[in-house]
UniProtKB/TrEMBL annotation:
The lineage of its organism: Bacteria, Bacillati, Bacillota, Bacilli, Bacillales. InterPro entries: Spore_coat_CotF-like (IPR012851). It comes from the Bacteria. This is Spore coat protein F. Keywords: Capsid protein, Virion. Pfam families: Coat_F. It comes from Desmospora activa DSM 45169.
Amino acid sequence: MSNESRGYHEEGLSGDQQISDHRHLAWHETMELHELTAFQASALIKLKKSVRKVKDPQLQSLYIYSIQLLEQNLRELLLFYSYAPSVSNDHHCHRGITASQAGDLLGLAKTSVRTYAAAITETATPILRRVLTKQLHAAVEWHGKIFYYMLQHGYYPAYNLEMLLRNDQVNAQRAIAMRY
């Protein structure tokens, strides 16, 4: 049996859900794990804060389903954090209301950049393509302003992977524990 096909059984992971013999995640997948966890934790907090305000029973049911789905997603994703490269759990997390608000704004800007980029690839009309390209550039600038604000204030430790991943874990656990 080759090294790559061996894998080993991890607590919380079963069957084909195994970590390779490298015994840690690759850097690029660790960053994707970060993006998914941060995005879903933020969305979960928003849903839990607003679910009681939804008056339509069917829509409220969809909110509750979404909350349960995101909670399960986060629980599953958090299992992989102990396999991130060079992660220790002894770092201070800097997450307050301002950091959370800035993170929401950063997520909106990042989603805008991705959405514009995808829209441009589907655009056939030249003038619309130029307008969307101009707006994409503005969205990139917008994202940069928010990102550098967060970096400057210590809300986004982009150059400290351990702190970044620890912030994800704390925020996701807080979102899961939050009542709705």
